[in-house]
Write a structure and sequence with these properties.
By secondary structure, the protein is of the alpha/beta class. It is built from eight helices and eight strands.
Length: 292
């Protein structure tokens, strides 16, 4: 009985303390509101001012959150270089709205290859790259050859998991036939679910790439650019870690910059990082393993 009474007393005291904290918090907020004449005061006079401040904050968050994964001294740039931007997703970056990549680069003073811009005039598909450039576009690379930027994108979220098995066979080599020097430990077989049979493997002799690897067409694009440019920066537009060890160890890739999902104005920070206006001080919160 005494034990039960003590327990009941403890519960009553806990409720009383909770109620006191709730009331004091409410009174404090109410007093603050009364001090301002009953009107909640904001730091901005107009909606436009508030949105402008939000845009400025988003750029700051990107500047402090983007991560420089690799740099051999190529960055920062001067800002007046003639550059060629590759990658089918450059007009439609994952998690980006508002600013466009090429507009941001031009705003920082870069002279962007217009012929290559025309080649990428339509939105691309993640992981699918083309190198069927016409003669005019090929010739433009000789003029806009101070630096190449390659944009690689990936998506994926809760309820939209990346594929653990794609339709591309893993051969552990790049598009130039160079061996990785290591073998993936745990890749999947290609197959499908069949009624009454469960998951049926259709090709037991081969293992297949997963979504967060560099695709065959991306490897071909990388090989194409490496053969034509002495300075290459890879931009990673993804919320997911990717397999980047091969690019990290490739001397032909001078810098790798991870920008995540830049939002409405985060791309401005990208231009500022490339020119050294801001220092990319962000750090990774995940391990980017060589082999997933």
């Amino acid at each position: 009985m005494l034990k039960t009474l003590k327990k009941a007393t403890s519960i009553v005291l806990a409720l009383a303390m909770s109620l006191t904290m709730f009331v004091s918090g409410t009174v404090g907020a109410s007093a603050l509101l009364l001090d301002k004449g009953g009107i909640y005061q904001t730091d901005f006079d107009t909606r436009e001012d508030a949105l402008a401040a939000a845009d400025e904050l988003n750029t700051l968050l990107a500047a402090e959150g983007d991560v420089l994964l690799k740099n051999d001294g190529t960055l920062p740039l001067f800002g007046g270089e003639k550059i060629s931007v590759f990658g089918g997703m450059q007009r439609n970056l994952v998690g980006a709205s508002g600013d466009k990549l090429l507009d941001v680069l031009r705003a920082e003073g870069f002279r962007v290859n217009p012929a290559l811009e025309g080649f990428y005039s339509s939105n691309g598909t993640i992981g699918t790259e083309r190198i069927n450039f016409n003669q005019k576009q090929e010739q433009s690379l000789d003029l806009y050859n101070d630096l190449a930027i390659i944009v690689l994108s990936r998506t994926g979220s809760e309820g939209a998991d990346p594929n653990r098995v794609t339709n591309e066979i893993e051969d552990d080599m790049d598009a130039e036939g160079n061996d990785y020097g290591w073998r993936h430990e745990a890749l999947g077989h290609y197959g499908a679910f069949e009624n009454g049979k469960g998951y049926v493997i259709s090709d037991p002799d081969n293992y297949y790439k997963h979504y967060l690897e560099i695709t065959d067409s991306e490897e071909e694009l990388l090989a194409y650019v490496k053969a034509r440019f002495s300075k290459i920066v890879v931009i990673l537009n993804t919320s997911n870690a990717m397999e980047m060890a091969n690019l990290q160890n490739d001397d032909a890739i001078n810098a790798i910059l991870w920008i995540g999902r830049p939002g409405s104005t985060g791309l401005k920070a990208l231009g500022q990082i490339l020119t050294g206006e801001v220092n990319p001080s962000g750090k990774l919160v995940d391990e980017w393993n060589r082999d997933f």
